[in-house]
Amino acid sequence: MHRPLPFRLDDSTALADAMACAPFATLITRDADGWLADHLPMLRIAEREGAPLGVLRGHVARTNPLVAGATTRPALAIFHGPQAYITPSWYPAKREHGRVVPTWNYQVVHAHGTLRLIDDASWLRDTVAALTDHFERDRTHPWSIEDAPAGFIDGLCRGIVGVELVIERLDGQRKASQHKPDAERAAIQRGLIDECGFDEASAHCLSGWRETDERH
């Protein structure tokens, strides 16, 4: 991925947060017939022995062509964060001199590593439980796989195969108009909220600006 210096996202905490906030990944692999692209939620497990950057875990249907290939292979998981078209109509410079153009702001993380397929009932049940607990964690009454009838989850797990990507390199990029003047970044923040319906956190991600910044 081309990563111009102003937009590079290299901080380990920021990279982990970006993946956690956008866990529905695009998993890219290759087999004898060409490229495969799968879309699935992947949960990052923090640093462990042999994987200082952590691992990503998920599962795919047993009928997925990914399962028919080699049990280990190079892979790339892409995590797409907030993204938006940025109209030059928001910029104060449009009114001042008109030398403005549109752009697209976004946040993305590429996780490179080695993928392995896991066909183990205990591992699959633990991973399904971990994924469910992660996505249910903010609910007042979270659902658990233990809420399902006995044997029901085990039956469903027989139709899936686990995937685990040992992360070997993380490349992140956050294009948020960092090179623009404060007035233009504040205008992007307001435009994303007022016209596009973004929440403040996502608008801040794409502008690097908060309304409170104007008071400092």
UniProtKB/TrEMBL annotation:
Pfam families xrefs: FMN_bind_2
Stated name of the protein: FMN-binding negative transcriptional regulator
Organism from which the protein derives: Salinicola endophyticus
Lineage: Bacteria, Pseudomonadati, Pseudomonadota, Gammaproteobacteria, Oceanospirillales
